[in-house]
Amino acid sequence: MQTLDITLVSGPSGAGKTTWIQQQIRSIAGSTLYLSLGADAGSVDSTYLAAEVPGLTILPMTQMGDFLAHPIPGSTVYLELGFYIDLSSLILPDPMTDCRRVAVLPPGSRDTDWHGWADEIVTGAETHFTLQQPHLWRSALSGEVLDPASLNTFWYELTNGAYGTIQRAKGIFDVADGRSFYFDFVAGLAETTDLELNLPRWLNGRPDRFSGIEVVGEMLDQEAIAQTIKECCLNDQVIAYYQQQIKDSLEPGDEVA
Predict the structure, then answer these.
(1) For the packed helices 17-26 and 44-52, what is the interaxial angle rounded to 10 degrees?
(2) How many CB atoms lie within 10 A of CB 70?
(3) What average pLDDT is seen over the chain?
(4) Positive or negative CA dihedral for 112, 117, 119, 122?
(5) What is 91-139 written as a DSSP string?
């Protein structure tokens, strides 16, 4: 059987797993694939990586079995494990039992479950987590278009404790002028990442691409978060108005979807 170049990457939320994977992928000349165990078919991390790393293939978990049976020759695979996955009970397919295991941990981490599991420890971001039982909340927003000012206000409120104690928050949002943004917050770090993704402006109705939000924290007021996001979303008439305004201002050759 062909030897597969597969790296499993685990670690706590916010330590920098996706950032480390992105750095590794950029240094590889051949075919690279990414998948996230525990995420849906579309996820914040996979959408972010696909937009920012040219040539990367996102492999849905539903296709993992077919890939293992018929791997792409010379390909390199990175499988990211959510922080909530119990490593002691993780059962891998036979072709993956000898894969490389990497744990991305905050500086100074000692004697964690990841130390016993990993073949290699990578020093990631400094984090300041005190939560005893962090909870993960997700919401898909595909097709929604948000008002930028309202989004910025919501994100400020979210990351400053208005809806519970936040350890990590990240999201991909389509906004009124057709652009898609990646937001990333980690408790203890000075600033939120606010990055325009390398995607064409969507200026023809509601976007047919992934957007969504993931929040890790305690005592989360999920209903209030969902309601506030809903209030940030624009209706069809307003979306059409803004899209037409942007179309009229674009130069010939500007990339749109």
Answers:
(1) 30
(2) 8
(3) 89
(4) negative
(5) ---GGGTT-EEEEEE-TT--S-HHHHH-SEEEE--------SS-EEEEE
Question: Which residue, 102, 117, 93, is CA-closest to 21?
Answer: 102
56-110 tens-digit pLDDT: 999 888 888 888 888 888 889 999 998 888 898 888 888 787 899 999 998 988 9
Whose tokens are 């209706």? That residue is 235
Buried b (16+ CB within 10 A) or exposed e, 92-106: eeebeeebebbbbbb
Determine how β-strand 76-81 pairs with β-strand 100-105: unpaired
Token reading at 251:
């130069």
**Which domains does the chain show, CATH number per domain?**
5-123 (3.40.50), 135-249 (3.30.1220.10)
pTM confidence score: 0.89
